[in-house]
């Protein structure tokens, strides 16, 4: 009798501004079975100073939590764990210090994700855990940012991330835990001002259900239940009543609500102020709570059976269309780059396999900057890939794409390469060389297929083997390759052609 295969277990960790969360799930048939949840209040955002640097105490609190999580993940393969960092590590100027120290504690890469990507993943987590069909508005108030998403089924239509969270607003409007009507009104007004630029878009788009996720809205719901609102539904009227109750106290530590934990007390008033502003600005009638959030979104996207389409492919295709990329040329360069890279890395590991995928997208999008102007288009391409909203890509992946297209042509000023956290510079060098060769070999932009080309790599020295007499019949290409040899030589690389 064949022994049943053990179900795959996957884990997702959300490094939030207020708390770190980990959820572990088992894949059973066509569903995810949550088998454990872990939460640690870290207060990372409270460690940001005026220069946006994390203090050592906050860094240590975060590292201590990761060390605990690592114990639960012993034996997990890298492809079964995703760690996403949000607002505070996006903002922190010294995030690299935290990431470097974390490497020795937890053997999985930490992805710092953009706010819009955080919103997309939050929506995915909610969509998978909510039974209602129809268009949803999802609101997630974190420690440092608030995400607002409108979507339907598993697709998002509007995604914004605003720099307002219960920790940052607590520090700004309720210092030393002091509560007053004046501070409450100021916090609500500030949040409404943040929402002013997007509110009409959301109201115009509309939704059938408003859903809240994560700790702030969960705490508000539990307090409302404790006040006698048994259904747990949040309404504007109930938020006003809750605000009046909060204002009966002068200090956050004195808040005495059934269902409110001691560690939530300091940031509770700020969270209520932000949610009240969201209700007012978007004219929300009522909101329910969902257990699904960012970490559930990470889990569902990790498992292929639940991935409705590769969001990154759709993002790349949409970007190519937006910037009028010549797709025939883009695919020629992509196919050549993949052919060359497969010779360099015939059996790539997980990390290099991911890099080879990014190489393909970089090749597809290497000419997006032509939509701005031809001179220096490689720099324009890099800027667009680094700073555009690209659903499905984390900040490191966008930085890799930008770096590849930045160095696709002209001189190799490698000292201008940005710092990376998950990958090392040396990991990118083979990709840069590969893309440069693919761009050069397709410089004529013709449909004539390339002959068989072979490449061998010996560290920094590459050998490009071309068919006999091919260069004689392609003199312009031969000149381009000679120029390429000069660029490589100045960077300390070798390109031999035979």
Overview of the molecule:
InterPro entries: ATPase_NBD (IPR043129), Exopolyphosphatase (IPR022371), GppA/Ppx_hydrolase (IPR050273), Ppx_GppA_C (IPR048950), Ppx_GppA_N (IPR003695), PyroPPase_GppA_Ppx (IPR030673). A hairpin with a 4-residue loop joins strand 6 and strand 7. The mean pLDDT is 92. The strands form 3 sheets. A 6-stranded mixed beta sheet has the order 8-7-6-9-11-10, sandwiched between helices. Helix 13 runs parallel beside helix 16. It is an alpha/beta fold and 498 residues long. The protein is built from 17 helices and 14 strands. The chain folds into 3 domains: 104 residues, Nucleotidyltransferase, domain 5, CATH 3.30.420.40; 177 residues, Nucleotidyltransferase, domain 5 (2-Layer Sandwich), CATH 3.30.420.150; 142 residues, Hypothetical protein af1432 (Orthogonal Bundle).
Features:
alpha/beta, Hypothetical protein af1432, six-stranded mixed β-sheet, five-stranded mixed β-sheet, elongated, single chain, 498 residues, Nucleotidyltransferase, domain 5, 3 domains
Secondary structure layout:
Elements: E1 9-15, E2 19-28, E3 31-41, H1 56-72, E4 81-85, H2 87-91, H3 95-103, E5 110-112, H4 115-129, E6 135-141, E7 146-152, E8 155-162, H5 166-173, H6 181-205, E9 209-213, H7 214-226, E10 234-235, H8 236-246, H9 265-282, E11 286-290, H10 294-302, H11 311-322, H12 327-344, H13 350-364, H14 377-387, H15 395-406, H16 425-441, E12 454-458, E13 461-465, H17 475-490, E14 494-497
Parallel strand pairs: 1-4, 4-5, 6-9, 9-11, 13-14
Antiparallel strand pairs: 1-2, 2-3, 6-7, 7-8, 10-11, 12-13
């Amino acid at each position: 009798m064949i022994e049943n295969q053990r179900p795959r277990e996957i884990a997702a960790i959300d490094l939030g501004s207020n708390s770190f969360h980990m959820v572990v799930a088992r894949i059973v048939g066509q569903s995810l079975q949550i088998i454990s949840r872990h939460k640690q209040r870290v207060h990372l955002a409270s460690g940001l100073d005026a220069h946006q640097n994390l203090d050592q105490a906050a860094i240590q609190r975060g590292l201590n939590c990761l060390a605990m999580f690592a114990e639960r993940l012993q034996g997990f393969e890298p492809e079964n764990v995703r760690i996403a960092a949000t607002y505070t590590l996006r903002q922190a100027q010294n995030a690299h210090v935290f990431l470097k120290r974390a490497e020795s504690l937890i053997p999985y890469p930490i992805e710092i994700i953009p706010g819009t990507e955080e919103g997309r993943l939050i929506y995915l987590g909610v969509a998978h855990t909510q039974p209602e069909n129809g268009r949803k508005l999802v609101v997630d108030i974190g420690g440092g940012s608030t995400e607002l998403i409108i979507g339907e089924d598993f697709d998002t239509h509007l995604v914004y991330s605003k720099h307002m969270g219960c920790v940052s607003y607590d520090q700004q409007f309720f210092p030393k835990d002091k509560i007053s009507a004046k501070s409450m009104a100021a916090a609500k007004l500030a949040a409404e001002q943040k929402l002013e630029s997007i509110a009409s878009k959301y109201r115009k788009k509309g939704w059938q259900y408003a859903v809240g996720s994560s700790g702030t809205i969960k705490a508000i719901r539990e307090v409302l239940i404790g006040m006698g609102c048994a259904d747990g539904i949040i309404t504007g009227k109930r938020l006003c009543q809750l605000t009046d109750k909060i204002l009966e106290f002068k200090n956050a530590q004195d808040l005495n609500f059934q269902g409110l934990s001691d560690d939530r007390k300091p940031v509770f008033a700020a969270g209520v102020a932000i949610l009240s502003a969201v209700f007012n600005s978007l004219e929300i009638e009522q909101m329910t709570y969902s257990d699904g959030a960012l970490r559930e979104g990470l889990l569902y996207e990790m498992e292929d059976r639940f991935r409705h389409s590769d969001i990154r492919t759709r993002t790349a295709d949409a970007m190519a269309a937006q910037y009028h990329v010549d797709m025939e040329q883009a695919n020629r360069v992509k196919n050549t780059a993949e052919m060359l890279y497969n010779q360099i890395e015939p059996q790539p590991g997980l990390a290099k396999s991911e890099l080879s995928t990014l190489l393909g997208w970089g090749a597809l999008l290497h000419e997006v900057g032509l939509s701005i102007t031809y001179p220096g288009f490689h720099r324009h391409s890099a800027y667009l890939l680094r700073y555009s909203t690209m659903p499905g890509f984390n900040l490191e992946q966008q930085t890799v794409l930008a770096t590849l297209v930045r160095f696709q042509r002209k001189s190799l000023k490698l000292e201008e390469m940005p710092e990376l956290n998950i990958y090392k510079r040396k990991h990118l060098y083979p990709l840069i060389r590969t893309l440069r060769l693919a761009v050069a070999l397709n410089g004529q932009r013709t449909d004539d297929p390339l002959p068989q080309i072979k490449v061998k790599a010996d560290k920094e020295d590459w050998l490009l083997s071309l068919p006999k007499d091919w260069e004689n019949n392609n003199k312009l290409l031969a000149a381009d390759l000679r120029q390429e040899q000069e660029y490589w030589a100045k960077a300390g690389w070798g390109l031999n052609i035979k």
